[in-house]
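**Backbone geometry record:**
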Amino acid sequence: MTETPAAVQGDPSHGTPSPDLKIIETRVYRGPNVWSYEPAIHLVVDLGSLESFPSNTIPGFTEELLERLPRLDQHHCSRGRRGGFIERLNEGTWLGHIAEHVALQLQQEAGHDMRRGKTRQVKGQPGRYNIVYAYADEAVGLAAGELAVRFVNQLVQSDPEFDFTDELERFIKQAERTAFGPSTQAIVDEAVSRDIPWIRLNKASLVQLGQGVHAKRIRATMTSETGSIAVDVASDKDLTTRLLASAGLPVPRSESIRTVDEAVSVANKIGYPVVCKPLDGNHGRGVCLNLKNADDVREAFPIAAEQSRRGWVIVENMVVGKDYRCLIINGRMEAIAERVPAHVVGDGVHTVAELVDITNADPRRGVGHEKILTRITVNNAARQLVRDQGFELDDVPPEDVMVKLTLTGNMSTGGISIDRTWEAHPENVEIAEEAARMIGLDIAGIDFICPDITQPVRETGGAICEVNAAPGFRMHTNPTIGEPQYIAKPVVDMLFPPGATSRIPIVAVTGTNGKTTTSRMISHVFKGMGRKVGMTSTDGIVIDERLVIRSDASGPKSARMVLQNPRVDFAVFEVARGGILREGLGYERNDIAVVLNVQPDHLGLRGIDTLEQLADVKGVLVEAVPRTGFAVLNADDPLVRKMRRKCSGQVVWFSMAEPGSEVREYIEGHCRRGGRAVVLERSELGDMIVVKHGRRSMQLAWTHLLPATFGGRAMMNVQNSMAAAAAAFAAGAPLHDIRQGLRTFSTSYYLSPGRLNEIDVDGRTVIVDYCHNAPAMRMLGDFVDRLGESLIASSELGRPSRIGVIATAGDRRDEDILELGEVAAQHFDVLIVREDARLRGRQRGELAELIATGVRTAMEAGARCRQVEIVIDELTAIRHALARSNRGDLVVMCVDQHQTVLSELESVSHLAQAGTRSGDEGGDPDFVKPSEEADVPEE
């Protein structure tokens, strides 16, 4: 744990400290992030006047803090030993750092053993701090941070409306409400110990174990292997009894009825004493035991009927003996517990009511299933039962006399459990296992009533009184007496047998430019191999080449949606900077991390002001690579090269550097040591992509034969192809499959919408792309130059013009927007500047004017561009570009809504073809745009 620098003595001139600590911003990281490898809460706080008052300058602060939370003395802090945090308090530390430790301790008070945290001052903002701490449950972690801040303010200046004891109790109760039950938690803990990933699917106990096609689900102790028919059978106690009886298993005589008179009639026929219970109840609710006459039956019937969802009640003869629960998992007996009903034992001093209070004071007891044991509730039934035993609640029972408070031994009614797993007679074990098989449950709780589980029930007169679906594990994992049984192990063994896979391969792609195209290339390679690929990108979520959600899906939420899809057996995630800063990765680790480049874009947002800081954000993917994984890194980018130090696995380089250069020499040395790389070999015949592994060199493909490279002219897609090849090779794809994938991947709208899509519009070559920043414009400009030269060579209409439609997002810095215009001016003859529909904080027309200013600046310096116009609306700008172009011209459209633009272009293309066929030489009316409107921003 780290903290702020050591505090200094406060300046008395600053006056009296005020409770100014407040939370400015809250983020929840659900995976690896820029602060931590694990999920974490991030609070940005402002100390206000408290920046001048470290802990040692506030009288009584430390003493009251430790009085309220004495276990803070166990915190190591940066000292690395117990009591280290107390030393920091006494020396003086700032209150943001103290709030971090309080938030961690509050979670420990709620049973979440969280210890990791750090506090850092926000650079350039005195008094503001980043507080980052671990959490187990998101809601509890957030509540802990909010309560910590309020508590620290209370210590600074007392608030009569704030009662820390009440607030802490309320916080703990909230934590208990959101926590998993003991059964679910036991299974999740076992899964974590085996490195099986899990996702909580709702606020209750529905949990996914594993990813994609390997995923299994549990809800408490019901699993995705539990048959619905078996659950229905177990819920019908009458049917259960008949099925077990048909198999020759010992069961009590019983009948199901719907009226009081029928209940009395059956009881008379079976013989007293009898049991009356709901046909489809659970947790012992509505079960009435030891009914000795018709009056008892009449009184018990409505109690049982109330708990029956279908109104049916079972009357059966009462089997006398101890209550045992046999837990059967996957056909085998794994644990047996004797259940003792809720009771108190007299001591000759205290009354029954006092003994109940003493028993409930046991810290192991809580409400419902929140703790190992459940508090005993004294209701009317309990009072009557005590009275039947000859006592009242105010009576003092003799020493060692047991007074029962319930008749059933359910843990949920306050009972206790005694482990009897190794004491059961083999014949009884066989009967329990056969009962589970008859009902068809993968996890079953078989309730035995018999005098002694160590003796055969067929000889002692015992019987199976119930078979339970979704039996609770608490009595076995935390018995009141005896050894705990680790029964989550056979459950996870059943869902994931030894050697079974729980994870799907994850390839994560990041970089300033090229992420979407590279992700699509990788997906295309593995789709060709027959894999069911789930991909996220800025265009949406694609499952097996079907776009299922259309939105910007390059964030952590989209990644989790793919991992939940039961069809996916391979995942490719485009990971954007914003998602990492907002929520982290959203998953635990990626097998392969691909980092394409780090260029100046999105700077000045969320505290990322420099390229080095941006590289740290994108480097989170490399840090999330396990020892068995790979980081595919661009050796030509110095900031990406440095990320090799963050990788726990192996590094695969890709590079377009010339042989003999410093970068290539480094890569050659890497390969001689057994490493992997993808490089470009140049010759008179063209450029060849070569895969290197150790001392082997394997030719992959000529770049001019890859459709996405436009005959080798689109160098950005040459680089993207190399990155995709390196990732696929690291993921185990054979070379011929990688080659086939790249040779069949084109920039058609079907395979790569909005990325270098080429379409012929009435003799014009139109390129549609998503370029939106200066580095991307340089690469696009290089492509335009190369493509323009080929068009000149093939043109019969004279020298073709280059017309560009450009724009950028409003959340870029002014200097970046100006640079975009300056770069574009170097490659186009005419530029039409438009704006996106979302301005991201800018005024309408502001962005376009900034870009146009950059273009004009370059024009004054002698750039290629000779004219710039502003047409705000995207479709209007597209139509205007087409209207002022001629046959043979090159028109490049940097678009926002690519689907709308492509639809428009196809429509125009069809209209033009129809006009030509009919002899109409005129243009489309939409192309005609009055010149006086060209420079007027439109709404």
